[in-house]
Amino acid sequence: MKQVPETKVKLTDVKELMNKGYNLLQELREEVDAPVVKAEFLTKEVTAVYGEEAARKFYDPKNFKREGAMPKPVLKTLFGEGGVQTLDGEEHHHRKNYFMDLMSPDRMEAYHELLAKNVSEELGKQHGEFELFDLANKVLFNTISEWSGINLERYDSKTLEKLARNQISMISGAVTSPIDHIKGIKDRNESEKWAQDLIEEARKHPVPGKEHLALYAFAHATDLYGELLPVEVAAVELLNIIRPTVALTVWVALMGHALFAERNVYEEVKGNFGELQDSFIQEMRRYYPFFPMLPAIAVNDVEIDGYLIAKESFVVLDLYGSNHDERTITSPGQFDVKRYVGRAKDISYKEEYEMIAQGGGKFREMHRCAGEWITLHSLRVFSDQLVNKYEFTVPQQDWTIPMNQFPTYPNSKVLLFKE
Question: N or C: which end of the chain has fewer CB within 10 A?
Fold first, then answer.
């Protein structure tokens, strides 16, 4: 096995390199002309890998662990302390089952129907110019909260809008500016307090027949030893249902870019919607930047692409780079709505590593996002509403998608006009 080529990032180059954003790891790979690269950022050594083979090795618990890998800034804003993303082994498997049990076909159908109703009502109210991003943020938060068993009637509209914005703030505060990070921590603390109050109330006043709803499932979730999860941890897991779903606001904005920035895509999808809908959705998830990378720590020496990854190495899997890997994807820089025709559902229900916008591997056993099916249902609802149910005029706007912003979406947040 070959030794991993190394590059040292000078302090004077850090800002310029970080501005590469989603393309940062590709830049480092190109610098050493290798598929695996080790870079020293200040005092931290990071080994970056990408591609289908790397993903197979990365998600194998015999090779890598998650415990201790997630940077503190990400835990404090994005994932929260003690959440399922930080666990390994039996503890992870036990906790993950709570999430997967919520994703049953009947519960997914209930989510789909509720979201379709809410999106249709909200779009029906629009007259004149509006931002698709803000509309999606509101509707997704209200829908996932209601689906989870939360009574929204007890809150006024301003409180709901603030809670909805908090979910996006927790994401953008993870790896951006210090100001955004501080705001992300504040908004996470506010969201966790809200969720803790809900968990405590659900424990005091359990409702028979609602055990299958997320609020009550996590309120009564136990650890490996049968003890109730601490309120703080149960609240984090409830938010791990709500926050990622509200994060789909970003996908909806990127869908708006795909459909309306270039009208030929809209016309092609509309002309054969039944056949192209799911292929369009999967290609959108592959093509656009979403979550940039995932960290882990090597528990053994691992060989990836012919290079030796030493035990205890801090490793990141480049998700965006993997979904644009010329070694396994034909013309990855081209948006092809027909790329997954006939295979679209397999990508999220059978295939484990071909496309890893939301992680790879097996859903129950590995660290693949339990909410991928909610993602598909959400994007099916929005694509149907945007393409088939309403007619929009598209104002002039800034369609730029900044690659150094996380999460990223068009600068204009997708402006649409409806009579």
Answer: C
Q: Calculate the alpha carbon distances from 230 to 89, 91, 205, 207 in Å.
A: 20, 15, 17, 20
Residues for the chain: how many in total? 419
Model pLDDT for residues 287-327, shown as the tens digit of each residue? 999 888 889 999 999 999 999 999 999 999 999 999 999 99
pLDDT at residue 285, as a whole number: 94
Two structure tokens written together for 319: 């998700």
d(C-alpha 384, C-alpha 369), whole Å: 24
Cα distance between residue 341 and residue 332, in whole Å: 16
Q: Look at residue 244 and give its three-state secondary structure.
A: helix
pLDDT at residue 86 above 80? no
Architecture of domain 2-418: Orthogonal Bundle (1.10)
Average pLDDT over residues 375-398: 96
Q: Where are the domains of the chain?
A: 2-418
Q: Write down the mean pLDDT value for the chain.
A: 89
Q: Which amino acid is at 300?
A: N
Taking the C-alpha atoms of residue 95 and residue 352, their distance in angstroms, rounded to an integer, is 20
Output the CA torsion sign for 330, 348, 145, 92: negative
pTM for this structure? 0.90
Angle subtended by helix axes 231-246 and 157-172, to nearest 10: 90
Chain position carrying tokens 């590593």: 353
How far is the CA of 373 from the CAs of 16, 123, 196, 290, 406, in angstroms? Answer: 37, 23, 26, 16, 23
Angle CA(388)–CA(394)–CA(400) in degrees, nearest 5? 115
- Reply yes or no: is the peptide bond before residue 407 cis, omega within 30 of 0: yes
Q: What is the mean pLDDT of residues 216-245?
A: 93
Asked if 416 and 132 count as a contact pair (C-beta separation under 8 A), the reply is yes
For residues 160-183, give the mean pLDDT.
74
From residue 74, alpha-carbon distances to 22, 53, 69 in Å are: 16, 26, 10
